[in-house]
Amino acid sequence: MINTMDKINHPSYYQGRIETIDYIEDKDLNFNLWNVIKYVSRAGKKDDVVQDLEKAKWYIEREINRLKNNK
Fold it and tell me: For 56-68, how does the pLDDT look when each residue is reduced to its tens digit (9 = 90+)?
């Protein structure tokens, strides 16, 4: 039987010495930067590595544009 709580609380594609969510919360990142960390952390472990990095890139570009427009 598969433990679905592990898939919710500790998904295998975020394995490491610290929880990704703990790092994100500690750094007080906004939504765009949160997603950059999320996609980079799991790159190639859940979806295609290039797809994950493209998603991270999309959020980086969105954050850069947000910052430029708020000057």
Answer: 999 999 999 999 9
